[in-house]
Amino acid sequence: MEQAHDLIRPWRRATIAVSAVAAVELVLLGVLAILLLGNPIARHFRESAAAAAAPRVRTAVPAPAKKPTLSRSETSVMVLNGNGQAGAAHAAADRVQAHGYMLGNVGNAPAITPHSVVMYRAGYEAEGRRLGRDLHVRIVRPLDGMRAAQLLGSHLVLIIGT
Hints:
By secondary structure, the chain is an alpha/beta fold.
């Protein structure tokens, strides 16, 4: 009669044999992967190393094409009263129109401002600087505290200070 440990041995041998076959298959798959993928990966590393070792040459970057400056008659200016004196915005609007600018909205600024300021939307810096020169306003800067949608289509904002 067979004993219990004799019945277990064939399973143990079969498990060891299957594990050995799986290990051999794993080694063969590893070798195959190295043969198929090793060459492209090695080439990539060689090219990367060569590129890193090569001296870097600076190429001239072309300057972005400048948009032509709008004429005064095409430049819309919003005028806001930031000094609290009644009629200051309309007086400034008359000066803006006298220089040939198109007049946008005229109204009151949300707060009192100590200095007059010209603010410009993105892409209209040249027009803003020209308006600052025309009206002798020293502070010219990008739009701050207002969104472009609040300009109601104007390119520039002139805030009259105290």
